[in-house]
Design brief:
The chain is mainly alpha-helical. It folds into two domains: 4-41; 54-146. Helices cover 63% and strands 7% of the residues. Strand 1 (4-5) and strand 2 form a beta hairpin. The relative contact order is 0.11. Bound molecules: zinc ion (ZN). Residues 6, 8-9, 11, 25, 27-28, 30 line the site of zinc ion.
């Protein structure tokens, strides 16, 4: 079984696609053409394609959060080393303590915010997966209802 999805609304257009053939979406009327070099695929192959059609911003947002996470780690490391170098250079009483505290706080704080960024990126991906699986399950249930198994 192979699915072709509507490029506009995401519903199943056909489950027996032929290369280079056009299919009209039963829901919104959009005509979807299968590529001439089309090779039937499984439902799983369409996952990223379908979800990012519906939520085009999410992929970018996920990338931005990952990028931010790494930037924060980089800045925290720079801050940590600068504070340490300064602490070694000016090793006098209260200033030394402040610099050591700054280096520790930048490491812990940076790590914390980086973790939050990575967690946000991954929770978006988890939501996408859940949404996608739910929709796939719904599509399959509808198809089963539409094409019931012949009674023996
Ligand atoms: Zn449609």
């Amino acid at each position: 079984m192979s699915f072709i999805y509507c490029s506009k609304c995401g519903s199943v257009v056909t489950m027996v696609p032929k290369p280079g053939k056009s299919y009209e979406c039963q829901k919104c009327g959009t005509v979807v053409k299968t590529p001439s070099d089309y090779v039937p695929k499984t439902v799983a192959d369409y996952k990223p394609f379908r979800t990012y059609i519906r939520y085009p911003a999410l992929k970018t947002i996920t990338t931005v959060f990952r990028f931010l996470g790494w930037i924060i780690i980089l800045l925290a490391c720079i801050s940590f080393f600068i504070s340490l170098i300064l602490a070694v250079k000016y090793n006098s009483g209260s200033l030394l303590l402040t610099l050591l505290l700054t280096s520790i706080v930048s490491l812990i704080g940076g790590g914390f915010w980086a973790l939050i960024c990575f967690a946000l990126a991954e929770s978006i991906e988890v939501s996408i997966d859940i949404e996608e699986n739910t929709r796939t399950a719904k599509d399959i249930l509808e198809l089963i209802k539409k094409y019931p198994r012949p009674s023996q």
